Amino acid sequence: MSNNEKFIEFRKKYPRFIYKNYSLKKEENSINVVYDFSIENLCEFHPEITFDIEKLELANNFDSACAEKIIFSLGLVEMISYWKASCCPEIIIECGFIDEEDIIWLKKLFFNGLGEFFFRNEIKTDFNSFVDIKCNGKKFPTSDEFVSKKLNLIPVGGGKDSNVSLELLKENKQNNRCFIINPRGTTLECAKVAGYSDAEIVKVKRTIDKELLSLNAQGFLNGHTPFSAIVAFIALYCSYLIGSENIILSNESSANEGNVEGLNVNHQYSKSFEFEQDFNSFVKKNITSKIVYFSLLRPFSELQIAKQFSAFEKYHRVFKSCNLGSKTDSWCADCPKCLFVYSILIPFIDEKTLIEVFGKNMLDNPKLKDTFDGLVGFTPVKPFECVGTVDEINLSLSLAVKKFEKENKKLPFLLDYYSQKADIQKNISDLSILKAYNEENNIPEKFEKYTKEMYRFVSAVD
After folding, report:
1. Residue 280 pLDDT more than 80?
2. Is the pLDDT of residue 143 over 90?
3. Fewest Cβ atoms closer than 10 Å to its Cβ: which of 150, 174, 269, 274?
C-alpha cells in the first residue's frame, strides 16, 4: 500500500484527532507540562516537556493567565507530530479557544510545515481539504501581565549560526541567557566557550511519547515536522518565566528558499521569515506584545555566516550540527548536512582543519555525488536538510576551486568533478551574495549595530 493510499485509509478509519487537555505543575526544581492528545479509535499520546528552574530566577508566575495561554498554544504546535501519524480529517480542540483567523493561522503552519512530509510521502491533498479544525474549549481571560528583567534569550543548537550570534552579542553578556532544548555535550560546550555559566543557561527537556514511535514502527505515516515552531513557543514560555524581552534567533535569509523547483516545499519553513512574521502576529494578538521574536542573522546568507564563523576559531573544534550524529555528539561525515557545512566553510577555513573537525575530507568521497548534485542544483531537488541556497553553495565551491588552484593543491574528487561541470569564472565574477544585506527582517534598532558590524566584515572581498 502506498503512503497516499494509507493517507486515504487512515482518514476513513480515524476521523478525529483530539487536543483534550494539558497539565502544568511546578515541582521543587522544575516545571512540568504534559499534553493529552488522542487519535479517536486508536490511541492516546502524553508527550512531556520539563523546564529546569533549579538555578533560574523567575520573574513571572509559571501558571498565570498569560503563561497558560503560552502552554496551550505550544500544544497547538506540539500536536502536529502526533496528528501526522494518521492525518485525521478533523481536529477538535477541547481545552482552549482560537478564533477563525487563528484557525487559518494554524492550518497554514500545519500545511506549510508539513510540506516536505506530504511531498516525500507522495500524499495528494490541498490546503482547503487536508484538515478541518474546530474548538470546543473556553476563551482564556485577557491578560498581558509581564515583569521584565531586560534579558535576551538566545537559542543555542550547537551549529555555526547560533555561535555567531553569541559572539556578536558578547558585549551584552550580562543580559543574555542561553536557551537549550535537550542539552547535550556540544550545545553546553558552545555556551561554555561563549562564557556562559550553568546558571545562565535555560534548559528544557522535550520527550516524545513512545506510542508515536510504536505507530511509526507499525507503518503509520511519518516524516519531517516544523520543529522550529515548537522551539519558538517553548522559548516564549521560557522568556516569560525569566522576564526576557527578546528571543534572538540565528535563522538566515537562506532559510526562505524551498527544496523543490516549482513547488512550495521548504524543509526550513518554520525558520523562514514568513513563519517569523506569522508567529509574532499570533503572539501579539493572543498572548503578549512585550516579548519580541526575531533572527539576528536574517539579513545574511549561509555563505556570509560561514565567513563570519571562520573568524571565531574558538568554536571550530566544538560546533556540530549533524542531525544523524546528534545522539553521539559527532559529525557523521556521510549526510547532506555534513557535506553542506563542509562545503560552505572550505573557502574560509583551511582544508587540514576541516578534515580534523569532520574526521575525513568530505569533498573526496565519490559516494556523496548524488547528494552533492542536489546541493549545487545539478538535480531539481535540494536535500531535505537545513542547507543554504543553490546560488551560495555554487559560489562557495567556485571560491574553493580558485583557492586550491592558487595554493597549487590537487582538487578533491567532488571539487574536481564540480570544476569540470560548472562555470567557475562566471560564478565568482558576481560576489553579490557576499555583499547582500536582506532588509526584510525584524531586528530592533538597538541590535542593528551588531549586524552592521558583521556586514562590514563579510562584504569585504579581495
Report:
1. yes
2. no
3. 174
What gap in Å lies between CA 384 and CA 198, rounded to an integer? 34
Enclosing domain of residue 18: 3-295
Same domain, 269 and 392: no
Round the average pLDDT of the chain to a whole number and report it: 94
Give the C-alpha separation, 371 to 17, whole Å.
37
Instruction: Give me 449's grid cell.
Output: 549595530
Amino acid at position 125, single letter: T
Which helix (H) or strand (E) segment holds residue 454: the answer is: helix 448-458
- Locate cell 528544557: which residue? 204
Scanning the structure block, which residue is given the C-alpha cell 569564472? 425
Q: Is 59 a residue whose pLDDT tops 70?
A: yes
| Count: domains in the chain | 2
- Of all residues in the chain, what percent carry a pLDDT higher than 70? 100
Whether the predicted pLDDT of 462 surpasses 70: no
Neighbours of 432 (CB within 10 A): 9
261 and 153 within one domain: yes
pLDDT at site 258 = 82
- Output the pTM of the full model: 0.95
Q: Do 49 and 191 fall within a single domain?
A: yes
Q: Cα torsion for 105, 270, 274, 433, to the nearest 10°?
A: -170
Residue 11 included in any domain: yes
Q: Where are the alpha helices (DSSP H) in 14-159?
A: 65-78, 80-83, 100-113, 115-120
Single residue among 274, 295, 316 that ends a domain in this structure: 295
